[in-house]
Design brief:
By secondary structure, this protein is of the alpha/beta class. It has a single domain, classed as Alpha-Beta Barrel (TIM Barrel). Helices cover about 50% and strands about 15% of the residues. It has a seven-stranded parallel β-sheet. A hairpin with a 3-residue loop joins strand 2 and strand 3. The protein is globular. The protein binds coproporphyrinogen III (CP3). The site of coproporphyrinogen III has 22 residues, from strand 3 and strand 4.
Length: about 350
């Protein structure tokens, strides 16, 4: 375990070559992913099929030798396990039943009712813990309560999270019940992933950037702190990565305030700024713009080198600033890896 480069970075070690993995590294830009997804039938069937979900998790490890594998699943499986309806519309994205009033919330189950639905996910983790190369770190994940709540309230992705902000303004008690349930259920969900063999867990707060002022503290920072401290109490030493995407200035102090071991950065902050203001508190992850995986060329090489250099004096895990997109060229991923590893 001591030799796993990702775990060393998370423990605060500065390494000459930063370890690397990529958000959405198992995804539609890879022909082998598209083939396995077709075999599964659809995206959710793939998520709930342990053998095939493990297979797509392993594909980018075989092809590229990333230092970490991230469990193949989705942040919206948890609301489904709590009783929300969930389906994916091809070419558009997720759809869920909505929460607009107290009776919608009352339909949902409790934090301990999730495991029957999520059992296949734990099975996927077990297969991966057995089959991954010994140097590869297995990362489990969940959505952060605010981000998951935005989908549960609106019933779909929204550009400005308007429906969730509206519910927060109009019925704060209901909104806070949703956040509390998700906080407790996320602790149970991640705990089971850790028991099954996840060595690190990551909390995706993709819409943290739309929480302003006190709301950021209440609904991004406090839930991350509760989840992190509960997981560390149950599983001493478990490393946690927080990703309050587009938090901007609020990245500063996020690790100290929540107890996460690493802060993942999106590409809207400059690596030089983040080295000075965020990496001073510990490990950071990021933050190459994912569009470089589409465009490639010298700009990809230059920007990759600039990020490695900016974070060279502290613990760093190289990654994109957000997930790789389906139109990316697999060759550009190899070019990024070769550049980071200096070949
Ligand atoms: O990173 C990984 O490779 C692990 C697997 C993973 C997926 N989704 C697989 C997926 C992870 C960590 C997620 C997280 C996730 N899911 C987030 C947070 C991170 C982020 O991207 O901001 C969010 C907001 C979701 C919800 C979600 N899932 C949306 C909005 C969509 C549709 C958008 C799209 O890219 O199509 C998904 C679908 C999804 N989740 C796909 C994958 C590989 C594509 C589905 C397909 O194969 O058709």
């Amino acid at each position: 375990m001591a030799d796993k480069t990702i775990l060393r970075a998370l423990a605060g070690e500065t390494q000459k070559t930063p370890p690397i993995w990529m958000m959405r590294q198992a995804g539609r830009y890879l022909p082998e992913y598209r083939a396995t997804r077709a075999q599964a039938g659809d995206f959710l069937s793939l998520c709930y099929n342990p053998e095939l979900a493990a297979e797509v998790t392993l594909q980018p490890i075989r092809r590229y030798g990333f230092d970490a594998a991230i469990l193949f699943a989705d942040i919206l499986l948890l609301p489904q396990a709590l009783g929300a309806d969930l389906w994916f519309v091809t070419g558009e994205g997720p759809r869920l039943s909505t929460i607009t009033e107290d009776k919608d919330f009352a339909r949902l189950g409790g934090k301990d009712d999730i495991h029957e639905t999520l059992n296949p996910v734990y099975e996927t983790v077990k297969i991966l813990a057995r089959d991954l190369p010994e140097e590869t770190t297995l990362i489990g994940f969940a959505g952060a309560p605010w981000t998951v709540a935005t989908y549960m309230i609106a019933g779909r992705g929204t550009p400005d999270q308007g429906p969730a902000h509206a519910l927060k303004a109009e019925n704060r008690a209901l909104f806070e019940q949703i956040i509390d349930l998700l906080t407790q259920a996320t602790i149970e969900y991640l705990s089971k992933q850790i028991e099954a063999g996840a060595e690190v867990v990551k909390l995706f707060d993709s819409w943290a950037g739309s929480l302003k002022g006190e709301d950021f503290d209440r609904y991004a920072l406090q839930p991350a702190k509760k989840i992190t401290s509960a997981l560390k109490a149950r599983h001493p030493g478990i490393p946690v990565i927080g990703f309050p995407r587009e938090a901007g200035d609020k990245y500063v102090g996020f690790a100290k305030a929540t107890g996460v071991d690493c802060v993942a950065l999106d590409n809207s902050v400059s690596p030089e700024w983040a080295a000075a203001h965020v990496q001073i508190d510990g490990c950071v992850q990021g933050n190459l713009k994912s569009s470089h995986m589409v465009t490639g060329g010298q700009a990809l090489v230059d920007e990759t080198r600039a990020i490695v250099d900016a974070f060279a004096n502290g613990p760093h895990i190289f990654n994109l600033g957000h997930g790789i997109t389906p139109d990316a060229d697999p060759e550009n991923v190899q070019l990024m890896i070769d550049t980071v590893r200096g070949r």
